[in-house]
Protein: YfhO family protein
Amino acid sequence: MNWKNKWIYTVILIHIVIALTYSGTTFLKNMNDSIPASPVGNNISYMTPGDHFEQFYRYSIVKNNILRMNFPYFSGYQYNFEDIGNFTEGLVFFPFSFISGMLSFVTGDILAYNLMALLSYVFVGLSAYYLVLNITKNKGSAIISSVFYSALPFRTSFLYGEMVYGIDLCLLPLPILFTEKAIESNKKRYFLLLVISLFLISTANSQMFYYYSLLVSPYFVFRFWNYLNNKKLITKDKLMNISIIIFGICMISSYLFYILKLMSKSALEKGQDFSELFIYSPEIKNIFIHYSGNEKNLYIGWTLLIFIVFIISGVWNSKKYLKERELLFLWFFIPIFLLSYILTFGPNFDKYTGLNMYKWFFDNIPAANGTRTTGRIMAISALLFTVILGIIINFSYNYLSRTKVGNKFVIKLLVIIVCFSIILDFNYLNPIMVKVEKENSVYRTISGTKNRVLAIPFQHEADHFMNASYMYYSLIYDLRMFNGHSSLYPSKYREIAPILYPINEGEFTKEIWRNVKNQGFKYIIVHNTEFEPRVSRLITAKLINNKYLNLVKQDKGYFLLEILDTPKEAVETFQSIFNQYINIGSESSDFGSIHYFNNWYAKEVYADQRPFRWTKSNKSSLVYLVDKKKPISAMEFDVKAPLAGTILKLRVNENQYTEQPIGNGEWHHITIKLAEQDKPYFFVELEINNTFNPGKTDSRELGIMVSDIIVK
Structure:
């Protein structure tokens, strides 16, 4: 074993120690049956929804597809409706999803996913080490830079929540490293490796590749312009090597053109809404906070102060302590770093300065409107700063080496101290682990069916984190589901979702039945579980009682319903629904409370006015399940109708109770006296004679406003 290899083993060992220390005991003890959901929290939950299920799906897709004799990146398990063809995201997260897939043949999907998180420390650390070592020729500065890049909170916050960027960062140093190697040696293999590394960035993370190309391209243009003008090299060799790069650019462009084509068919076709960027963009305070959430982590610790002092002092331009190539990197990377770091703030930078710089960037730079999470530009900032930090450390090393205190022991001690201070400063982690359901008998019942499946509840927003849980079931049980979670979701989802959304509320009308049958849906899986996403047990009973649906199987809060070809004979009253509710197992927590049963919008709360809910359509209903230990005598609430001439009819347990005009724009107090009865519920129906549509940005059909209901 030579000394050179000992250094590499040292770097690997350092990052293994960081990986184990940062991951913590909760992560390490549950690697076989749980996946990380958040970098902070330090607890274990069961099937908690979130983006982590989307990432787990993408890292598990290769193995499952190979076993089914599918294309490794087949993703037709989600977004199945109409005739849009199989949904695809391209070679998503390649090569890491492929590596994880191969690893999972030995370890299983869950352990492979978690091992990739641990291995990422080594991958990221080594790539930064080799790049900085190539530039500075200083192992100490290379080790410090690799620790900084690997332990950076921006990276680790993604690593234990979404995986994206957390592992992808290991690719960013490689094109720069291979560019330097290619120019130094003029060897074809480095030109080829340069092309391959760029292609892998484009497949692993096309968004990151976009910012990388946009911001770092001046460096590549300058370096290869100098290469072409180097008269010491043979023209034939230069043309051959450049042709490799041109071929690679064509290959990458073809793939990116394919991704752009997918985007043109998705909801991203028109770009993001600029106003949403204010929600997701970092603020100045995030510079000083260890953990601000995945999208807003800009913390680089005390190294930022070192950078500022280095720049203000002007010593960075000294040829006495830095080589010409190091100065070249500083001249390029310092301004690009500052620009990229400013861009991470998105429209908040405009808000602070009044310059409208990001607004111009968003409106005028092609594809810049494709993301609402500007903090992800930090991936590029992190790479640039890692190189700058390595050069600063090398400058300090060269300076100390010429002083009396700069002996080798002191310098090595300083390297160790700096590494430890970065590791301690960046460690905020206590990951939350989510246990993954091992077996589901309801989903297993229809495993492998090519009929379309709808799971409820689903969200209006196709990329809502609550929808991600279903991706796990669709992949594991080889289903063709309506549900999905992707920023590339088909634009037609926006048309279909409102049609199917009433099923979440237990509505399954003749029109909905015809629609789902025409689209090839055969099954509905209702989630009435102890964890989200879930519908209530009453909604579940309502669907089971529906004449167009038939209960096939139930287990542990999951209900498999078959969509019938011919409606069954069924009595659809609340009493029959309540009977189903008792049959499938009532929930004690349902009794003694109000349930907004049919045609209600979410509660709205505004300053200086009472909370209320809008009724949906002209008929709405609610139910109070009687708790025998808490007898009641009345329900009281207020109603308000914006339209003149509105008349409200009230029925209690399907008997007419009252009818009165309420259409003068004022609040009206309603008291329903509840006499003792044999039924274990009070079913209240509200019917009005007119509804309206607010128009403009609100497309809802609105009835009347109803305040909170008080039971006495």
Remarks:
- The chain has a mean pLDDT of 89.
